[in-house]
Structure formats: C-alpha cells, structure tokens
Amino acid sequence: MDNPITTMTxxxxxxxxxxxxxxxxxxxxxxxxxxxxxxxxxPMLTPSEREMxxxxxxxxxxxxxxxxxEDDFQTSWxxx
Length: 80
Known about the structure:
The protein is an alpha+beta fold and 80 residues long. The protein has helices at 25-32, 38-41, 47-55, 59-66, 72-78; strands spanning 5-11, 18-24.
C-alpha cells in the first residue's frame, strides 16, 4: 500500500518563524480527523514540533511567553 509523505510548513503565530514538517499522510490525517492524539499519530516528530503544529508557537516563543521550564519533563521538548 502506498503511503505518501506529506509536508507542512507552519509559521509561529508570535515571531512568524517557519518550520517544515514531514510525515506519512495517513499519520497527519489520523491526527487532523481526531482519530489519534498527536503524540500517537506523529511520534516521528519531536514534542516541540508537535507543539508547533497544535499551538503555532515555536520553542523560543513558548519560553518567552511561559518562562523557563521548571523540571526535566518540560525541558525535554522545548528545544528539540
């Protein structure tokens, strides 16, 4: 079965920096259609990339808005 790769470019709503993501089309569709949580549908993306897709906020802007992470769990995704 053919599983084409989809590429999306998202601009941060705050600083307008763009990031481009690629993943199998069926994975993007599963997330977009509500069939799977983003971390399950797109595990090949980093947590920071998934955050950009869901909130259109890049890691740098996230830190500027919410401050430095307070624990290792929060730190693990911001600059990945």
